[in-house]
Write a structure and sequence with these properties.
Radius of gyration: 21 Å
Helix content: over 70%
Largest sheet: none
Strand content: under 5%
Pfam families: PAP2
InterPro entries: Dolichyldiphosphatase_PAP2 (IPR039667), PAP2/HPO (IPR000326), PAP2/HPO_sf (IPR036938)
Number of strands: 0
Structural class: mainly alpha
Family: Belongs to the dolichyldiphosphatase family.
Number of helices: 9
Function: Required for efficient N-glycosylation. Necessary for maintaining optimal levels of dolichol-linked oligosaccharides. Hydrolyzes dolichyl pyrophosphate at a very high rate and dolichyl monophosphate at a much lower rate. Does not act on phosphatidate.
Keywords: Endoplasmic reticulum, Hydrolase, Membrane, Transmembrane, Transmembrane helix
Order of helices and strands: HHHHHHHHH
């Protein structure tokens, strides 16, 4: 009968939905930065597992959750995951993507709205872990701090080390075989794909109209 608890339990599944979304996006887009982002999330999870097994701080109520995969709770993996995802996405939105048209106000508006949604999701998932007795406030707090630091470090690593290598990686035979591409030099991939797709659709429509005549 605890509606809030049920809602927060569903929200705590956020990391699973994000992973499924990433896998789907990689299958259909096959873009190197997206693959790097997922690699950062996986590395972040590995660091979380390592810290947990070094600190070995128990969860606040182990007997209430006998199905958890590990008895250690410091730091919260959900909190660390969500804050890594949110902070990295925030950095990507404001430092990686650049608008190429004149809609400056709308560009900033959707970035601000999306950033607020990302932070809200991270806060709600973090709170759910305390409410559902999976973690203490300190475990959630340190998870958020660890995830944020990892996100900043991975973003810097991707921008400074990996991005210059992306053109070479995209030229590898195996990359060409799996249609893996590099879009790092395109300021706003959403705007680019929109304009290219629209132009190609109009071009094909003109050709089709010519044939029908």
């Amino acid at each position: 009968g605890d509606f809030s608890g049920q809602l927060l339990a569903y929200l705590s599944l956020g990391p699973i939905f994000i992973i499924v979304g990433f896998i789907t996006l990689i299958i259909f887009k096959r873009e190197l930065h997206t693959i790097s982002f997922l690699g950062g999330l996986a590395f972040n999870e590995g660091v979380n597992w390592l810290i947990k097994n070094v600190i070995r701080e128990p969860r606040p109520c182990e007997e209430a959750h006998s199905t958890v995969t590990t008895k250690y709770g410091m730091p919260s993996s959900h909190s660390q995951f969500m804050w890594f995802f949110s902070v990295y996405s925030f950095l990507f939105l404001y430092l990686r993507m650049h608008q190429t048209n004149n809609a400056r106000f709308l560009d900033l508006l959707w970035r601000h709205v999306l950033s607020v949604c990302l932070v809200t999701a991270a806060l709600l998932v973090s709170y759910s872990r305390v409410y559902l007795l999976y973690h203490t406030w300190s475990q959630v707090l340190y998870g958020g701090v660890a995830g944020s630091i990892m996100a900043i470090a991975w973003f810097a690593f991707t921008q400074e080390i990996l991005t210059p290598l992306f053109p070479r990686i995209a030229a590898w035979p195996i990359s060409e075989f799996f249609l893996i591409r590099d879009t790092s030099l395109i300021p706003n991939i959403l705007w680019f794909e929109y304009t290219v797709t629209r132009a190609e659709a109009r071009n094909r429509q003109r050709k089709l109209g010519t044939k029908l005549q």
